[in-house]
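Morning!

This is the sequence you dropped in the shared folder:
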Amino acid sequence: MTSRKRSAVKKQREEFEAGFGSLDSLFERAEQGMSALEAKREGAYRAKSCDRKNRYDTKLDAQDAIARSADRGVRGLTCYKCEFCGGWHLTSHGR
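The structure's back. Tokens below.
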């Protein structure tokens, strides 16, 4: 059974914090880890939706590319405005 004395509680807290560092640093490390993970996810999303694709300056240019692809037998393409570069990209996924 643990003691209810303030001094005992304080001592237990100090021992606990000594094992992990302070609670502030523990939460800070967790927050940094989450920020790093979010940045990694954002980079992967950008690479998949923008960096690896052809960029068209206007929607009309993208639609022309879709028409040329359709002439060669590729069907089901659409275009979308990229949130990263502001250009237009083609996709086979409906939005």
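Headline: The chain has a mean pLDDT of 88.

More detail when I'm at my desk.
O.
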